[in-house]
Amino acid sequence: MLARWILSLTCAAAFSGGFASIAPAAEFDEFIQPLLTAKCVKCHGTQEPEGDISFPTVDSAEKLLAQPELIQRVIEVIDANDMPPEGEPQLKPEERTRLLASLKTLLRQATAGAERRGNSIFRLNRFQYNNAVKDLFQLNRNVFELPEKLLTRQDRYLPSTTGTMPDVVNVASHSLAPQPGLAGVQAFPKDLRAEHGFDNQADKLTLSPLLLDAFLRLSVSIVESPDFNPQTVGIWQDFFQPPADGTDLSVEIERRLKKFLRLAFRGPVDEATLRRYATYATDKLQQGLSFTESMKKVASAALCSPMFLYQSPRDDGASGQFELASRLSFFLWAGIPDEQLLDLAEQGELAKPDVLRKQLDRMLADGKIERFLDVFPSQWMQLENALAVTPDPQKSRYFSLDENYPAGLQMLIEPLLLFDAVFIENRPLVELIAPQFSYRSEFLRDWYESDFRPPQVDADQVLAKNQELDSRRKHLATQIATMQAEIDAVLNPVREKLLAERNKKFAGRPVVDLRPLAAWEFNGDLTDSLHKLDLQAHGEIKFQDGMAVLKDAYLQSRPLPIDLQAKTLEVWFQLANVKQRGGGAMSIQGPGPLFDSIVLGERQPQHWISGSNSFIRTEDFPESTAETSVGETLHLAMVYAADGTTTLYRNGVPYGKPFRKGSVVFPKDKSSVLFGLRHLPKGGNKFLTISVDKAILYDRALTAEEVAASARNANVAISEQDLLSELPEQQQVQVQASLKSLAQAKSDLVNVPPPQNLKQLQEEVQGRFDDQVRAKLRSTVFRRVAAQDPRYGGVITNAAVLCMTSGPLRTQPIARGAWVIEVIFNDPPPPPPNDVPPLKEEDLAHLTIREQFAAHRENA
Length: 860
Fold this sequence. Notes:
Oligomer: single chain
């Protein structure tokens, strides 16, 4: 279809009825004048004729030939079916065909002696320049970024070998983030568009001094790019690679340049031009440049030549063969003609209808036809305007949910894929308007067919579930309290008895029963200790010089069965021999920011506590310098009080004043940590070596007496096994069963889910829905779907065109109508009068769009 159209534009068509052989006077007398008298004189008579056209005054072929402008006007109105007007007898199809052919023949004869206007010359636009350079050097990538390329086909379905388009294609629009070209190469600015959206208008493609300078710099940057090398340049071996030793370089340079310049300048190069470029390359060689660099210089010179930059008619005689080759190539391939086109032009064969048809078929079947599909449909439909669409986010929140991939990128792909399919499958042109199918992504399917809202959380169901969980929680809490009271009634007397007995061992000094939540130590085999404590090690852990060395490591305990903010405690040990600071460190870290650290140093004999990245306390502990006795243990404790303060104890005695931390990860009313820091032998190492002897976590704030007792080893931990051993065997079995039931009840209570927050649940649903939409906005998969609704899918009613002909707040029927008659019917409306005020939308907000325009029309 496209081939036939191009051929008709290229070759003059003769009227099939053989009018070319009939004399103008005879055709006028026999056919034209009788037809005009019967169909046109009623309106275009001698008295006040319509449009100032009076046919009775044109009563001979000579008078009509003297008015070529009149002939042109008549051709236009008849060709557009504007005449005869509605309500008047119409022309039969065969009459219209013959009349147009006759009038066009008369118009050619009327203008045969007139001075012919020369064709406008215009430079290559950005897309053509990029492809011309690619074709010339056989580059495997673009020269620079091309944001005007709206569609990138990731599946290579062009050219089609089957005449069908795949049902599923992977495509994307990178127009907002175009793919890079050669490194270090920057394109000249985007070309101005004509009113109809195309960028090949001659009067827009001028060459200012600034732009000429940009072309000079561009031509140099291309050949100097690090990406311009044998791996990317297809002609490297034949053009830039140095010839074999002993080759006559002057002759070789001319041979290579003759072929290169013929392609670059789209036709034969005269001897003077060839010698000028060859001499330039030879001069560079004599100046000390390598052969490759010399050829790069001459190549960049060709790229900024007017013969490369301009699409200008060549002075090749009346036939215009090379001009035809160039126009065909830049129209269909947006690049330079290949050698086959140039050879046919040089032989004078290209304009012959049969040869031309074969070349058109070849060009349409070539992979470079993709460039035509890159340019023509997007500019014809003016789809770049879809990228500037900014609907009100309050009304269309999901349009710009992902600012890097707005909905407009998905939308403009749909009409471009439809054009691809109509082209590849040679389908009727009417399917651009009313197609039987369309290509849509998952996002577009939802955009057309859904209300684009996340699912709503069932409030009644959430309330019922919360009531059920609350009832379960209360039941378990009552059950636990009852079982704990029964167990305490049996075990507390035994505990008091054992405490009294053990108190005697400390000669009357008070002892305390401190049952830790978690404890660990490094005074034996590390692996065995980790196994016993059910702790999981992370990072690199090893023994070195008598100490545990942990590099980027921490220990993670099992989930703690208490109501802590941190469901899992992370303890980070750094017991390495740090040469910048000496010593090592131990840190406790929750799921949030750094909680507490103890850092041990030798070069500056100081220890300091740091907490939450907002508090630093530096104090001197001379006991922990290198002179400290081997094996001496320093006991440190951090107690977190109910008022949010932290107290540091050293060897059971408060050290300094309580301080307030910036933030606390654990509940402020029940946390304490005790450390035992032991000095190990140096083992030949001049730095102080410190080991964690023992670390214990408690789930409550210890008293000063309890800390002091712990420091002097006056704390006792009476285990359940100690208590059970004091009971009779039958009672032991009963209490053990009760303890097991209590543990199970506590575990069940911990595992009861917290109450569900309706607002939070809806926010989570909204977040998941937003993530799904973002993923769809980034999808590259488009599927062929049958047309279910005639309102959607064609180039007029697809989402891209509807969006770009709307305003941020509402649709704009006038803008949409103007687009339709301009783009589809090629009959742009005149500009609106200057004195027509805009709609007062605030006064008409309660009306529909149709009602608003009806009110507007009441004011003539």
